């Protein structure tokens, strides 16, 4: 992607290695440390750096730089703006934002993560960032912000953020949709209307607490390979060659807009796991899988019905001209726990 000169300069001057002094987990599960010969080369790959795990589950990281860049560009940062960041991570994202001339308040629900981010920012000599340990759902009561950026996967937006946002402000956030976290650019007020446009596909670690609360009509949670029964081919391939990853994500997004059963499944295929668009049945063990080549696999007692739904989604996406996810306009609705509600995607429209 093409970066603005200001953001390119920020990436060129803020040292990413300063924010992972204790190392990070490699893709193969081993731990990289600053003493390793390939440490710097690995740090500067366009890849996520997992910095904290709970058992085998990653719970904090430095996001993929290209994704950070897309989200920061979408935030439209200007010098002097006040930005609220939900999810401090390593502090690297806040450092980039501060380098663009903004003043940052960064919140993380994990005390040790907030402490390490604060130390890294000080060590790197980054001014203009305040890191606090608190629940991001509440935001910063009594304060106002020009922009809000969320660096963790959420089910919906807190009304508190919208009440703390200046009238011309916006929120950039990865919001759950069919088992993934597409990044949305959101505008609105605490009482609505709240609308959004899709920025890009993404996958993020999931937040804790009210920000990931279940709500009526939510898509099913992602399914692991061991959760599914054996799926058998039902519909033939439609795409030769198969859809590229971006186009497959576009189809996936449309499926999530048209079916509340759409989600992510890690399916076992040819002795390996494959990330698939799935339409899961109520037991979450069967339904339909739509593969990148457009073929459909089904399982379970309602296999025929799910095969029909999968075929309908494919037909509808093709008839609509294979729209990219960025074409959709999203309306959000307030739902969830009445004591801590969230704004979630509820309506989708393709402009004519």
From TrEMBL:
InterPro entries: PCMT, SAM-dependent_MTases_sf
Highest taxon in the source lineage: Bacteria
GO annotation, biological process: methylation
EC number: 2.1.1.77
Pfam family, one: PCMT
Listed GO CC annotations: cytoplasm
GO MF, any single term: protein-L-isoaspartate (D-aspartate) O-methyltransferase activity
Family assignment from sequence similarity: Belongs to the methyltransferase superfamily. L-isoaspartyl/D-aspartyl protein methyltransferase family.
PANTHER family named among the record's database cross-references: PROTEIN-L-ISOASPARTATE O-METHYLTRANSFERASE (PTHR11579), PROTEIN-L-ISOASPARTATE(D-ASPARTATE) O-METHYLTRANSFERASE (PTHR11579:SF0)
Protein's UniProt name: Protein-L-isoaspartate O-methyltransferase
Source organism of the structure: Paractinoplanes rishiriensis
């Amino acid at each position: 992607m093409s970066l603005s000169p200001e953001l390119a300069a920020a990436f060129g001057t803020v040292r990413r290695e300063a924010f992972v002094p204790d190392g990070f987990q490699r893709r193969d599960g081993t731990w990289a440390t600053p003493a390793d010969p390939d440490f710097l080369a690995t740090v500067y790959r366009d890849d996520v750096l997992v910095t904290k795990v709970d058992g085998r589950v990653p719970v904090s990281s430095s996001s993929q730089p290209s994704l950070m860049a897309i989200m920061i560009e979408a935030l439209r940062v200007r010098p002097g703006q006040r930005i609220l960041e939900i999810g401090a991570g390593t502090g690297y994202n806040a450092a980039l934002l501060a380098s663009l001339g903004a003043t940052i308040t960064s919140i993380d629900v994990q005390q040790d993560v907030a402490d390490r981010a604060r130390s890294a920012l000080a060590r790197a000599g980054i001014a203009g960032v305040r890191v606090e340990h608190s629940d991001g759902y509440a935001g910063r009561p009594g304060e106002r912000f020009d922009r809000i950026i969320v660096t963790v996967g959420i089910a919906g937006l807190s009304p508190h953020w919208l009440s703390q946002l200046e009238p011309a402000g916006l929120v950039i956030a990865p919001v759950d949709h069919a088992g993934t976290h597409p990044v949305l650019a959101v505008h609105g007020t605490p009482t609505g209307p709240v609308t959004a446009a899709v920025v890009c596909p993404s996958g993020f670690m999931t937040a804790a607490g009210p920000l990931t609360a279940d709500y009526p009509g939510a898509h099913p949670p992602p399914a692991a390979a061991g959760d599914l029964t054996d799926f058998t081919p039902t519909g033939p391939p439609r795409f030769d060659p198969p859809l590229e990853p971006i186009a497959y994500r576009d189809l996936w997004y449309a499926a999530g807009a048209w079916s509340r059963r759409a989600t992510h499944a890690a399916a076992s295929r040819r002795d390996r796991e494959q990330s698939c668009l799935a339409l899961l049945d109520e037991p979450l063990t069967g339904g339909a899988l739509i593969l990148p080549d457009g073929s459909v696999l089904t399982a379970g007692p309602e296999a025929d019905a799910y095969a029909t739904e999968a075929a309908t989604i494919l037909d509808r996406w093709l008839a609509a001209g294979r729209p990219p996810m960025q074409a959709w306009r999203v309306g959000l609705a307030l739902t969830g726990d009445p004591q801590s509600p969230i704004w979630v995607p509820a309506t989708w429209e393709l402009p004519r």
